[in-house]
Structures
1.
Amino acid sequence: MSSTAIAQHLIDGEFTGEPVKERRNPARPDEVAVVSASGTRADAEAAIAAAEAAQPAWAAVPAPARGAILMRAAELLRSRAAEVAADLVREEGKTIAEASGEVGRAVGVLQFFGSLGWAATGTTYESALPGTTISTRRRPLGVVGLITPWNFPIAIPAWKTAPALLSGNAVVLKPSELTPMSARHLAAALHEAGLPAGVLNVVQGSGRTVGETLAQDDRIAALSFTGSTAVGRQIGRVVNERGGRSQLEMGGKNGVLVLDDADPRRAAQVVASGGFGLTGQACTATSRVYVTPGIRAAFLEELAAIAATYAPGDGLDPATAMGVVASDAQLERDISAVRNAVDSGATLLHGRPESDGLHFQPVIAVDVEHASPLAAEEIFGPIVAVMEVPDYEAGLAAINDSAYGLTAGICTTSLSRASDFAENAHAGVIKVNRATAGLDLHVPFGGVKDSSSGTFREQGHTATQFYTWEKTVYLGAE
Ligand code: NAD
């Protein structure tokens, strides 16, 4: 039995804003999953002002004490993980296992950056000048804006918020309007952990109103965005035009190359996990597969058998293998892309261009034209386009012939092919015999080409570079 969740803003230490906007549970359209506040420009500006006022005192707090607050927030989030995961399923539609994993990820991210409060920072250099040492230190930027998508509604806000706060910045976060409650849970944990008022502000609402205000306001020194390429490029132009710093992590069209020497079952598991896990609604999801002739038949047989086990259902039922599509607009994109591929000659080995509500069966479309939307554009559904290539070289060329460059994978037992692929596949993350989706939290993450601004990496130690600037100090003895 669920009760309707309420997601307000957090502005200057107060949860405020009338809850007016309903979000229905995509698996149960009759159920209102959450009612959220809907911010105005004035709300966004109040949040920025609160952040600006709070930031200097926060930056003066010793880094270990800032980190300790992140650690306490991690414990609070862990203690309510079951409730947070269930709310996440209700607003986003993924399975409870996936949601629990994501909440665990957010806990881990808070712990990781919390521990960095004790880490060594800066470098000491010898100087060419006598009696002089040179050292570098990293300073916070001030107020940073964070704009996040719906598909990882607590992990992405956490992996931006934690390094921003640890580095001594104040934050204004605008989560996706489809998933306000997950961000609300993150904010509550940090607030209750003792974060001073104004250091973290969350403004719920639309991209056009709240998001654009963050992009345009000169008081936002840096803006980190994750979302679609079209919106990201637009935001990047606005921030760069006014001299701000931007970080854009955007769409993907992630390919996997399956070579004759791979084990067909193992390769099918890698592709299915990357393509159908998270309902294919991951920036790192596998959406195109290039297969060499000798393994094609066995691989497709295995893949079809596995696809049949990914029946869509209500994510709150622990037996559900795959969650539902998150919205009607997303479903429309999925269906029209599949229909278009069929019209231009592709064969469907599994799934159809139709759906029962938002319960959409996984699709395997074979012999899709390389340039067709299903093979070339980000669709963001549980849909895998399969194309045959004559050999490794043609497969690598096809992987690289894409506007995107987020993740790329290869299934092979050849060390030399794997090494060559790791070197020459043009993507920010390379996976050898592992699903394209799924990331460790302590290593750099980001794309190239249309997947990223390519400016700064997220996650791991590298994440703090975006949220700081570097100062070089020459210290003479006298
Ligand atoms: P989206 O671009 O529609 O929205 C992302 C965020 O931007 C939302 O909070 C939205 O409200 C806001 N926004 C929309 N228009 C805006 C505007 N004009 N000004 C300011 N903000 C605006 O993306 P989405 O549908 O929420 O998420 C799916 C997309 O996110 C996919 O393209 C996916 O690949 C991408 N994604 C990328 C990564 C990554 O790390 N590369 C991770 C997850 C998702």
Note: The chain has a mean pLDDT of 97.
2.
Amino acid sequence: MINNLKNKKILLGITGSIAAYKSPMLVRELIKLGAEVEVITTPSALQFVTPITLASVSKNKVVSDMFDMSGQNEGAWHIHLAHWCDLAIIAPCSATTLGKLANGIADNALLAVFMAIPKNIPIVIAPAMDTTMFEFPATQNNIKTLQDFGFSILPPDSGELASGLTGPGRLPDVNVITNHISQVLENEISSQSANINQNERLNELINSPLEPLEQAVEKGKFQAELELERMKNSLIDNELSKYFKDKKVLITAGPTVERIDPVRYISNFSSGKMGYAIADVARKYAKEVMLISGQVSLTPPENVKFVSIESADELNQVMQANYEQYDVIIMAAAVADYKLANPFPQKHKHNESNLQLELVPTVDILGNIGPKKRENQILVGFALETNDALENAKHKLRKKNLDLIILNIYDDNNQVFGSDLNEVIIIDKNLKENHIEKASKTKISIEILKKIANLK
Ligand code: CTP
């Protein structure tokens, strides 16, 4: 395949389809092939990919807003942009943009520019959407209409889609798109292609720095992974900020301490790391985060309302005073199940006889809130079981009326307490299990918050 993209001006339109996450890779590939790229997006595309990423890979300002004049120095900027390019492509093209383009509706910057593209400039459309949307009769009609207009349609790939369905709708791989663009340009410029300057290409090859193949491959792989990671993160960022931006989140963490006398207590091994990690991630996205913590040796994250507690009773008091105001309550604290019926007011002295302590149950804080939680309030509990783990966790989920329960995977070799790593199974109300492999407590927190954001 010859590279006819060198010095070509490509206008890339991006719309609100999950496949928009591939767009920065497409921009980068086009630039690698020598093209100059201008990016224009619909407002909903920005739910999937950020203008900063697109601007940094395209090295040009990204246009998304019809009336934002900061990057548009002339009133008829959309006409200039439309006339500037050698080829224009919309990838991914959503069902909505297909429909609007087929019907001449120009209610955003992308559509206004694409409708102003002169007849002699080729336009490529790469539809990407869920199979059922792709098969919808109106979508099929719109595709036919655009074909009749002379647009080149790059058919979607078949495969697994974001919805979990399998079928046509996936945006083809980046190299398939660039090959298609090359072919379309080739047809347009076949007469010019004979003039490709062989000497220029040769010079380019001779002057390019040498790099051992292995190193180059490694580097490419690493960069691709980093890029994918960055893209995934920006998708997660969008998803979490969208859900949590107007939510108040209450998190409890750490052990409770039940006094025997002024210097002795009953407690457990909880380090508080899981709850603190959740608070640290949540504060980036939520409107407000309150962290209620037992006695641990961790520094609370900044910008959270922090309350320190000692006993289950104290935790209960703080919870009772606050829980109603919070939209999401995550109970990661390891609350003692028993406390002393009568703690000694003074230090108990050692003597030769046995000592019997009378323990009485503490209040089940989560169990009390569960039945009273208001509509749309999300309640998340934790469980750590040494036997019949799944069964016990599911029982707690139902008994305490929770939306989710996070079951810590426990085995003799698995050090949950105090570790920076954790492995969990997230169980939802429909008893659907989601196993999260061993990962940092930060990663586990992201998975938990993602699950909350996607609760139906
Ligand atoms: N929990 C609570 N109040 C208690 C005990 C537990 O709010 N007195 C919360 C924990 O913070 C956790 C969930 O309930 O989110 C499950 O805790 P766990 O101790 O596993 O549940 P229990 O109901 O105490 O059951 P078990 O008999 O297994 O201890």
Note: The CA atoms of residues 32 and 389 lie 53 Å apart.
